[in-house]
Design brief:
Two copies of one chain form a homodimer.
Chain A: H1 3-16, H2 24-34, E1 40-41, H3 42-49, H4 53-65, E2 69-72, E3 81-84, H5 89-116, H6 123-148, H7 150-161
Antiparallel strand pairs in A: 1-3, 2-3
Chain A binds a DNA duplex through residues 23-25, 41-43, 51-55, 57-58, 61, 78-80.
Chain lengths: 169, 169
DNA sequence: GCTATGTTTCAGAATATTCTGAACATTTCT
DNA sequence: AGAAATGTTCAGAATATTCTGAAACATAGC
């Protein structure tokens, strides 16, 4: 891969990390490993990305913890090297699952609680919260399926990327 | 609605704001307005949420800009009052559209660029990036549909919250 | 015009997040 | 054992984000 393309990819991936809540450095390291055939050592990573050893070390550990990279040992080398796991799914899953649990579920519960204690006849509030609940319920189902199993989510992905996955009109 | 339930809802909604990238104060104000029948003035909002006038003012403006709240005028009152729009969709749409454009699209482009400049025979990298591209492509289609029109997204929502929206196994 | 009431703005304070780098730990080599 | 190479930790620096509050601004009523 050309250097420029690789660098662009690394930076874009870094920015995109925000979308699912992982920080810039982690996302950049992940991207770099994804785009590199050869295992990379901590040294090369800090050089190529211009980050500190400490930062790189922590990020690598965390990426390993999410299961998206793997530490490997090369013959004749003392250092640790890292490669990306082929399977990118796991990261998305685990992060999604975690965020759902921490951010989504409590909000949905609180919303339902709020709805149940809405006074009779307060139609306006009922209606607003009802609509919201409908949205969140749909999202929740979607997430539940998506997070149910790898197999299920693969099927779902295929299905969703097909041409017409739901009835139009 | 009971006060405790309302407060819980406001706080949960506030935390959940992070999920779609709006800040705590904005989300809390939005929740408060959603859960309140009567229009609220800036004063009441700052009191109930314990935030400054300045902050409240900016958040209200931005919420108005996203089209999720509306400014109203009450007879005999000089102050501005605010109510939530019944339609919660618009916010989710616009925010999603904006984030897609700013964070998602560039990453996908960069990924494709990277793929196209991958050297022949570099199967490993090809495979990894290919898988990623497949995921992102599915997500993109999903988003495109979701963001295409309100009607389309309503249909989609209904569809997705139904019992079995895609072929199992 | 002047005052009362209400809103907006924005510089800088407070807070949260991310990163650095030096100290320390560990392993391998001599 | 000592030295060199490598990895990890973490206190606090750097940065980014969010919030405050006081001043500027707007408008209505007298």
């Amino acid at each position: 891969m050309q250097d420029k393309a690789r660098r662009d990819f690394v930076e874009s991936w870094g920015s995109m990390g925000a979308l699912w809540g992982i920080n810039r450095s982690m996302a950049r390291i992940h991207a770099l490993l994804l785009a590199t055939r050869e295992p990379l050592g901590l040294e090369e990573i800090t050089e190529q990305l211009g980050i500190s050893r400490g930062n790189a070390s922590v990020c690598l550990k965390e990426l390993r913890h999410w299961g998206v990279i793997r530490r490997v040992h090369l013959m004749g080398e003392r250092r640790d090297f890292y490669i990306a796991e082929e399977d990118v799914w796991s990261m998305l899953f685990r992060i999604a699952a975690e965020r759902k649990k921490r951010e989504f579920d409590p909000a949905l519960s609180a919303l339902r609680e709020a709805m149940s204690s809405t006074e009779e006849g307060d139609d306006l509030v009922q209606e607003r919260l009802g609509e919201l609940e409908e949205i969140l319920r749909a999202v929740e189902r979607l997430l539940q399926r998506f997070l149910a199993s790898e197999e299920a989510s693969r099927a779902m992905l295929k299905f969703m990327s097909a041409k017409v996955p739901y009835p139009q009109k």
